[in-house]
Specification:
The protein has about 525 residues and is an alpha/beta fold. It contains 17 helices and 18 strands. Bound molecules: 3-methyl-2-oxobutanoic acid and zinc ion.
Length: about 525
Amino acid sequence: MERVIVFDTTLRDGEQSPGASMNVAEKLRLATQLEKLGVDAIEAGFPAASPGDFEAVQAIGKKIGNSEVTALARTSKEDIDRAWAAVREAARPRLHTFIATSDIHLEHKLRMSREQVIQSAVEAVKHARRFTENVEFSAEDASRSDRDFLCRLFEAVIDAGATTVNVPDTVGYAMPDEFGELVRYIRQHTPNIHRAVMSVHCHNDLGLATANTLAGLRAGARQAEVTINGIGERAGNTSLEEVVMGLHTRRGLLDLYTGVNTREIHPTSRLVSMITGIVVQPNKAVVGANAFAHEAGIHQDGVLKNRMTYEIMEPEIVGLSANRLVLGKHSGRHAFREKLVDLGYDLSGEEINRLFEKFKELADKRKEIVDEDIEALVAEEILRVPDVYQLLYLNVVSGNLAVPTATVKLLVEGEERLGAGFGVGPIDATYNTIAKVTSTHCRLLRFSVNSITGGMDAQGEVTVRLQEDDLVALGKGADPDIITASAKAYINGLNRLEYLRRNPSLTPEERRL
Ligand code: KIV
Ligand code: ZN
């Protein structure tokens, strides 16, 4: 069996998903989890893009010891210098430089000839090699580029010192057979290709990113560039969990393996979803809520007789705990802490203490607390910033003959404020009143409510995205009462907006928390 290098780009390409921007603390938390997951390389960001990206790459580089930490750069010397300045303190740094190679990009975007592109790529790789021996080169839009030109370019950059050459399907245009054939062709027609690792990087515009990545690996590529939950630009990138579990489940056919600890897949998926607010679709392969749910009677019957009838992977192997029913109001701090560790969270003592208080409040309302309830508590904690606004009291009157009315009492920096207002529904009334009491004027860009578990007493989890001027922030709240959950999410969003407002030195990217 041969090993496939797993290169995770959730923090760079994944962060380019609309609305997925993360702040430095969130990026650090995710990088730590990615290392625990066992990815070989973490692409931490694009330092020349913004001071925030620079800072995040630097912080991740200082913290991560086992995985390589990679910084992206265009082929200019300035970009590469900036990328190196950010990543130089990493235990295992890598520089990743790229330039577009398709005629469409050359003509309309770069306005460069093929020879100029080769020259620019070679100079960039040589420049990067002055800093580190670990240099990756990517040919952006490779799948729409001339094959022989790609081979010439790869030969030149490998001679210049590139140790990994990456073939991106940047616009998700390729078909699996065609993409596999492209990788095979490059391998056969690039004389020095054996001196570098070949990598594939696919986008999912036609829903083929995983298929294309596996085709590339079968054709000889030995690095897969992936993101958690497949998040990324437009329709996203290849999802890590699908590739890793594809290789694992069909190892007899493919003869390839990865160093990923598959049991960390679910905790990592949940963390990404929490931090970005991007909910995983229920039928998503491997990590969707229904990925292991058997609904049809005939399937349930088969699974009860022998799981192998309808299950090709055991849920435990991707980190779904078999023992889902957990804590109740008599559970102590120790059991609670153990559960957090079991779910894969690495939290500080202070965070655990705050969560334990909230857990106790919840346990008073619900008899049984399941994993998803605890995850919702953690999500609120992770999105926490210093509280300017705190909810003290909420009373809502609503019904088919009543005018929805909300009375809200908030603690605003130590001062109690009370207000009442109307709306077209109970949530509208609540939000109008909170806006009045806080004198804020946000636009509600997104509102979603999910039931965290089944059952009549399930908690509702509300996610909002709020905008005020150029600031955008995510807010989350969970409660068995969905109006209260909605109020908590809105107030969490307001606190995050306030945090952004009070930190004007943040970059445009960071100003979208
Ligand atoms: O999709 C792409 O081409 C990229 C490169 C920068 C690797 O993300
Ligand atoms: Zn990409």
